[in-house]
């Protein structure tokens, strides 16, 4: 009679384990589809929100990088710039004037000053007319905002108070008003004034919320007349060097205080303070993403656990059979855990694909915002889904693994044993 | 091959303690053909589960190939089942989503055998049981007799020494029942130790050794020399 071999057991081969589970998943289509959807949706939520957040962040960064670090933006009205969005729309206490801008331009560290008046205006040529974003500024504006001229030339160097009936228009506005006909040298009408087109901007995306492609730029004094408004909306101040940034900022404020009868009624914002404020918002957004993702994962996890628990009781005779066939407890557990992992991974893949598709559509709709999910978020969401699935499948898997073979086989309930 | 020493198995049902197996002494030689009969609740199935290492004794010892099994944990017991014991159940216990061939293959898969080694073993069993043309059929596409043949194929594919059949013909008409029992007997002729639990007198009488159980005890044993005698009670 042969003696007993040393009880050892080979683990089930992975390929067989996967094949076994796939048959199971295929067999229980509805249950599998439900689980897959739950996981896919939560993974999609993570990827989509991260993608949108990241897109927004990149967009904002790109916007402010356009400005350059050595550019200060001055707006009328005094605000606290810490802890919140800096005011982009201002109610004025006292107008910022062209004279203020000229005074600032005479300060030591200031290399250029671009005053800004902006508003919507009905612009027409022949019978075509269109409401366009109308900007009143000067030559320095082109340098500070890095606007290049595709045809013709930029606004001429003029004293700030001098108006001139010339304008530079965006490429889209040119196309809408002139079609294929040449635009340079033609006259545009805005309210009671006429402007000759002397330049056309190079095609460029949005900047600081203005679509320069749809804009018309005229000398600042002309714009003042056009809008019948003396107060400036913004003053861009370019510094010679970054070294004296803090000091220059203080000097500008002091100058304005002196000019405004001792009242400090302007706000200066820098790229750093803007970025910092946006960083705050983005961090809040990230927390919200984490919260939403956490909740949806929890829901998916609970669903996995419930479905697995049901599966364990439905498959009790099968578990008994596996045990009768000499399947060790850990293989039984492995079968349940690997089923959960397969579901989690395919769900995650599906979720990532869905979010990629939606972000692709978002990029098509809003080409200027770079919606993309970073790789870490994709890998992270897949990992979270798998870990969640494993954690929640662990209890049912244990339950299955620890069943006494005879009870499982006969599907006896607690009464006996 | 098998020796039970004063083996007991009791269940607590309410405040009553039921002795499903009551101090059983039993020796089974290798290659034996036994039938176990008795009324419902006499402990036949419990005995079969005990011999199949599916159940653990409340007291006493079960020696399989001279190895005491009661100290073993579930893991080595599972391995012993896999290597040495095949089961045939009344209700077949086939996995419905797997084909006939895949059901028979299952023990080999669970044992972690590579596909290359599995194929020849499977082919042999499929031919032996005349199931080759039913290989790709799902259990529900098979007749009762064919299902039980698949279950027998699954039980013997690991070449066990002991084949335990619990009412193997219980769900079958007399013709398929006869075919199934003849198949089991052929396997016994080839050397496997066969134990059949049955209600059916005709089937029970075919065995070379007949055990009758009543109230958890072996009431009669056709092999006189091995009659269980209760020495201690």
Question: Can you walk through the features of this model?
Answer:
The complex is a heterodimer of chains A (417) and B (233). Chain A is an alpha+beta fold. Chain A has two domains: 14-62 and 281-410, no CATH class; 70-269, no CATH class. Helices cover 53% and strands 17% of the residues of chain A. Chain A contains twelve helices and twelve strands. Chain A has helices at residues 14-27, 29-67, 98-105, 139-144, 171-178, 220-227, 245-259, 271-314, 316-324, 329-365, 375-401, 405-410, and strands at 71-76, 110-125, 128-137, 149-152, 166-169, 187-190, 193-201, 206-207, 210-211, 215-219, 234-239, 266-269. A six-stranded mixed barrel of chain A has the order 2-3-10-5-7-6. A two-stranded antiparallel sheet of chain A has the order 8-9. In chain A, a hairpin with a 2-residue loop joins strand 2 and strand 3 (128-137). In chain A, helix 2 (29-67) runs antiparallel to helix 8 (271-314) and helix 2 (29-67) crosses helix 10. The model of chain A is unreliable at 1-8 and 412-417 (pLDDT under 50). Chain B has a single domain, classed as Rossmann fold, CATH 3.40.50.300. In chain B, helix 3 (100-110) crosses helix 4 (115-128) and helix 3 packs parallel to helix 5. Chain B is an alpha/beta fold. Chain B has helices at 44-51, 74-84, 100-110, 115-128, 144-156, 174-189, 201-204, and strands at 2-13, 16-28, 33-37, 59-64, 67-68, 85-88, 162-166, 193-197, 209-214, 217-221. In chain B, 33% of the residues lie in helices and 27% in strands. The interface between A and B is large, with 38 and 43 residues.
